[in-house]
Write a structure and sequence with these properties.
single chain, alpha+beta, six-stranded antiparallel sheet, 13 helices, 22 strands
Length: about 525
Amino acid sequence: MDGVTQSVDLSQVQDLDISDPPSVSDDTESVMVLDDTTLHAAKLPELKNWKDNDVFTEVRDGGQKCISTRWVCTLKPTPGGLIPKARLVARGFEEINGHTCQKDSPTCAKESLRLILAILAQNQWAPYSMDIKTAFLQGQKLKRDIFIRPPKEANCAGKIWHLKKCVYGLNDASLHWYNKVKTVMLECGAKVSKVDPAVFYWSDQKGNLRGVLACHVDDFIWGGTAEFETTVISHVRSKFSVGKEDSVAFQYIGIGLLHENQEIYLHQSNYVDNLTPIQIDKVRATQKDSRLTANETQSLRSKVGQILWIARQSRPDIIFDACNLAASIKNAKVENILQANKVIRRIKSDKVTLRFQHLGDGKLSLVVFSDASLGNLPDGGTQGGHLIFLVGETGKLSPICWNSKKIRRVVRSTLAGETLAMADAIDAGIFISTLFAELTTGKADPALLPLTCVTDCKSLYEAVKSTKFVAEKRLRIEISGINELMENHQVKELLWSKTEKQLADCLTKRGASPLVLLQTLEKGVWSY
């Protein structure tokens, strides 16, 4: 009955014997989701990929210290159904001193991705995606000796493999892949961003941006002029084995992108459609103050992870609720499951699409909304949050960044909370303005795109404008820092807004209406 699912009427079954599944010995060295001959056939293309990419040299087994390998076999969903896929992985933890290798490699930050989409829309360039097949097998060559024991499917008894490439499973495999991408991009005249090394840009002789490419491991997204495609993208295609390429409407790292009428739309409708509430019976739902069982806690943790993914990628309106749920898991109660289900219903009922558009030919500015809510967390802590938009002279906007988190310092007053929230927002804004300036002018100077900060805290607005010191001595440092940024033209101005027009209000407190924020996102326009 292996690999077969059938329904059985247990009332008609006699002498039912339930036995443990057969154990799998270590000799198989495989992780399999289905024991089927088709998975064996899927291993052959993987072995061919290793040979085609010149990954190893076959040498005699002379007792060298070897790393073992294992197969990871899965069923990959495709439009035509499930297809088996096999990947040969080295057990990198067996490498002596492997932990001493540098293994961190950059991936495009979510703020960088949204800024790139805004730049593409501003230049009226279409976004394109590119998937690299067997990426790690095409990475930079190894500079150390590693021997691995080949799988039995390779049919090379008495032989071992001396690696030339940093394969899947080794500690620094992703870094070797990134370094190869970096080398290829530099070969055709592109530059690596100093702010986000996973972003590459290409400018003409006058310094005008002509194209940009960002990488998230083996998933690329790019856009630019025809010259950029001819000079840079064609070079990338010639150096790597490229798989699927998409434009107009496609999924990129789990996010839906649509290019229509010279605008780019970001959404997660496919992901949201598959999001389901946590199942809980009516009796259990009435026990709101009851602690969760281990299984219930696991279900809540899994669901909160899904909610956080949506909140951070496309739904700023639920980011506070997502963060609040994440903080509750350690001492979770039934009430928290009910709260999670309520958030899920909101996500599914309020369809939100982020819009990136041409903002006009005039000067652009980065508008930063910050807010804080004193002592509103269950432990007495204060929540801070911010929103950042790229805005044109007519008020048209593209959303770039948002965040909501507990302020890590002891906050004694509303002024302190609002000041610390603004300081955090300015930090995020300077990162974005620096990256924008670098990509568009080649100069990583945040003063080229100064910030406009918006607060609904009158005391903060007056404290920044005044020459008098605030009572809290530690707070003077933060306010002095804001004033210094204004003197250096990195912050252009500080505006005061009524609370009902503060777009970041729903990022810091439960029950605050997100209506103004959602309307602003839908219309794509902000006015002060």
